[in-house]
Amino acid sequence: FVGGETLTLFHRFSVGEIRQGMLQPPAELLDSLAARLSEAIEREPAKYEWYLARGEVLNIKAAAFNDQAAFEAARSDVEKATSLAQNVPRVWYAKGTIFLGLGRCNNNPPASPALCDEGIAAFKKAVELNPDLADSYWTLGNAYHFVGNDKDADAAYSKALDLGYSVELPSEAQALIDVFSKTHNFPREEIG
89 falls in which pLDDT band (50, 70, 90)? Predict the structure, then answer.
């Protein structure tokens, strides 16, 4: 129990710091963390959290080092997590993120439009499971913005703001500026 709890905390800290740009993802750290999560999966193969965590780590490795094999392994893990926990929004967010990466959906044109569509569908599923949470819509807006769909990003961001989402990071404000300037929608006085 203590080992599992420590592993969970270390995973969340590492992934959070990397995503916020506070920590550069050293390959050794990612490989070590993936190996520990593999051991956890062997001990508890029905626990979706381990698959999800390893998928997140492998996705970071894939993106940081352009590692297609890591992307495919991350995809496999997140598919397993979604099969074990179909009603947990977090697994759908992870699936969406991985599929957008696999499809290289920010390229014009994307490498795989089908994977991009699956990624957006996963984010929509997360919103469906958590429709009253502003963060759900914000994350969907980010996904739309990532793939260059400003019209739908605008609608999702607007819904997030209507539900009380608080824009705090410069990158969040920049996303709104980018999207709202392209859609000519400047509806909010309370931003900023």
Answer: very high
Tokens in use for 74?
Answer: 């991350």
Phi, psi of 132 (to 5 degrees): -100, 5
Work out the burial of residue 13: count CB atoms within 10 Å of its CB; fewer than 13 is exposed, 13-18 middle, 19 or more buried.
exposed
Q: What angle do CA 176, 71, 169 make, to 5 degrees?
A: 20
Note the pLDDT tens digit of each residue in 41-68: 999 999 999 999 999 899 888 888 888 8
Look up residue 41 and give its two tokens. 């999966």
Contact 27, 62 (CB under 8 A): no
Cα 29 to Cα 156: distance, rounded to the nearest angstrom: 35
Of 133, 140, 174, the residue nearest 157 (C-alpha):
140
Please give the Cα distance from 107 to 148 (Å, whole number).
9
Residue type for 117, please? D
Write out the H or E segment, with its range, that includes residue 21. none
